[in-house]
Amino acid sequence: MNLDCFFRPKAIAVIGASNDPLKLxxxxxxxxxxxxxxxxxxxxxxxxxxxxVKAYRNVKDIPDEVDLAIxxxxxxxxxxxxxxxxxKGVKGAVIITAGFGExxxxxxxxxxxxxxxxxxxxxxxxxxxxxxxxNTLNDMNATFIMDxxxxxxxFVSQSGALGAGIVYKTVKExxxxxxxxxxxxxxxxxxxxxxxxxAETEEDKAIALYIxxxxxxxxxxxxxxxxTKKKPVIALKAGRSESGAKAASSHTGSxxxxxxxxxxxxxxxxxxxxxxxxxxxxMARAFTQPLPRxxxxxxxxxxxxxxxxxxxxxxRRGLRLAELEEKTIEELRSFLPPMAAVKNPVDMIASARGxxxxxxxxxxxxDKNVDMLISICVVPTFAGMTPTEHAEGVVKAVKEVNNGKxxxxxxxxxxxxxxxxxxxEANGIPSYERPEDVAAGAHALVEFAKARxxxxx
Amino acid sequence: MNLDCFFRPKAIAVIGASNDPLKLxxxxxxxxxxxxxxxxxxxxxxxxxxxxVKAYRNVKDIPDEVDLAIxxxxxxxxxxxxxxxxxKGVKGAVIITAGFGExxxxxxxxxxxxxxxxxxxxxxxxxxxxxxxxNTLNDMNATFIMDxxxxxxxFVSQSGALGAGIVYKTVKExxxxxxxxxxxxxxxxxxxxxxxxxAETEEDKAIALYIxxxxxxxxxxxxxxxxTKKKPVIALKAGRSESGAKAASSHTGSxxxxxxxxxxxxxxxxxxxxxxxxxxxxMARAFTQPLPRxxxxxxxxxxxxxxxxxxxxxxRRGLRLAELEEKTIEELRSFLPPMAAVKNPVDMIASARGxxxxxxxxxxxxDKNVDMLISICVVPTFAGMTPTEHAEGVVKAVKEVNNGKxxxxxxxxxxxxxxxxxxxEANGIPSYERPEDVAAGAHALVEFAKARxxxxx
Lengths: 457, 457
Known about the structure:
CATH class of the largest domain in chain A: Alpha Beta
Largest sheet of chain A: 7 strands, mixed
EC number (chains A, B): 6.2.1.13
Shape of chain A: elongated
Enzyme class (chains A, B): ligase
CATH architecture of the largest domain in chain A: 3-Layer(aba) Sandwich
GO molecular function (chains A, B): acetate-CoA ligase (ADP-forming) activity; ATP binding
Structural class of chain A: alpha/beta
Oligomer: homodimer
Organism (chains A, B): Thermococcus waiotapuensis
Strand content of chain A: 15-25%
Keywords (chains A, B): ATP-binding, Ligase, Nucleotide-binding
């Protein structure tokens, strides 16, 4: 299904765009003014201008074709607005306004009516009761929250607030998204249809789903089976535990369903399962890398402890430490200091410079017993060193060897690591901050490789 | 054992203090110039002045009693320096210099000799091969790394680099420490003796240990048993898995030992076990709060999803959702909007203001079925709101009710939450950013309450 109208519209109408900074329609229009893919028109029944831009009374008054409408009008005006959009020939509408199916049965009925109206005009809906939609590729932020960092993950969230929280948290952590979709009540478009669209895009390397409850399980499985043949899908399901399921049922009004059923459905359709938000993000981020041919990991580090903790975490996930070839060990011994450990994990010790990272990464990537590489850098403890040279060393090695083995980075020193992480990320190498996160990423690559049949074992 | 000379010295000598920014002795002296608890003297064999301060050729030339020496001289001069310190009457020395027991058997012998010399003068040693010691209470940073944020956790790390990485990472995350001790090779002082000292201090609410290998297991258990009667001890043991243990043995040169043995030792001595760095920190941070009487948790939130995820996480750890009293439900219904969920988790929905947080927290804390409270705030989605009013509401309720039930905060929106987190923390309420972290904190409180015999069940 082509949903380009939602993600690459030529013209967007913000219906309910406002001059009042306390209204959501203010934020949405403000955010969309940075849109690079086309025109953005404010619609407001009372104002001549919104934020200095000529406003229209009705979407139908806009002297241009409009493919996407963002609806942030009060609830009583939503139905009329959907009709107006239909008459205007709008192809997609995101209904941010709340107060529908999440409230009561009457609201559910109203929601269904909105969908019927939309479909009668050939229009599709996202929402109602959502935060909106972002496409960072063309700077489209059709939400009332801050811009996500640019990245490679398409993130679809059934909770608007949680989705917003995750966008905010990842800005701090330097984790980026290609798209963010808050699906709200999913009156029309749901996980299945969005996944199907996202499977075909170039820019979305992985699809991450935050799920509270799926209504049409059969449809989800059927679509997910097709999608996961092309692209990894990672799901975090809230309400896995008994307490959580109870909590979820009171939140969404629908039964969250037994975790066992969801788990079976995910496994059957090749959807990778995450237990926490950070695990979901860590898994999804790995897919800028090629798929590994096996589960043998080489670890290189400038400090022993982090190497050991990472070994623990990969072991816990069923990956294993590669046994290095004798010639690799000899090569490492030829330039690393005598105190360095030339077994896997390779501990280059604190004196390691960028050149050591480069030569070690190169030797490990060329080792035929190594399927993937994790490069760790804690804070360099020798004055005058910054982690950036370490990142540059790894990037140089990867470019030179270029043999399709995945490489993941682990930079564990907060602000001190930020620049180094950016260097790796700019070269498509995901860079993590915690041993369990880099292991989750490595594990996700192996699981997807296995599902795709490229794992040689 | 009184180790005040290491943490509250009246005078410190930095032996190897330097004017060369590329030397560790430069950083150590620079960091210590902010020390509030006493005088700091640079010692340098060549320089008249170090960083503008009159320097001494030898520690013995200092015209003042010196209780602590930080030794950062080249390896060949360490032994002589220790002798000088002994003759001067120094009570404690931190040997940052590396190249001893971590290298080879010869180094181990040299290390033992240093200890013998020190003991012959009644002096104790930390190190060698360490990053140093911090006490944030009196701004003592006797390390070559950046200042830790002030907090309530005493953190003892067997890996210097990892310890440094954790200090750096927590500065970014807003997590604080009361003390940081990098124990290095533990030639003299070890985990047991440090724990014993830290058990008696006012400012250290919990003791967190990063352990690679313990030499004297019997001593550790014997001391830990006593310490955990007074204060919680949380241990993260690297090398739990087979791969990790192999990695650890190559790193420390000593056998890491079977995890089963460590696990039994920790359990037997009441030490709480963490699986990751973040779990260790999350557990330790909870102990600014009183201990709960039971494992029944009330959750309040302004968004459903995070409440469900948190319910999942507390369930996973054997805690459970409290069943609210009827009168609590009635009270909540009296002021929360109709769409709010007045069951546990209480979903006050996105419109919740500070007043709602205040009244809800108050009602939940007064409920006799509630043993502890988790207050969640995602990003407030109504324009004009900031999470600070939510934090203030919770603080006000806790102060008014004041009935000894622990309260933990969960603010899930990165930079947007920082001010709110600070408000909670300034009032002794730990504030987390992830559901699994707040659940780890709650669980640690319950486990410690159980061990202390205050859990009524």
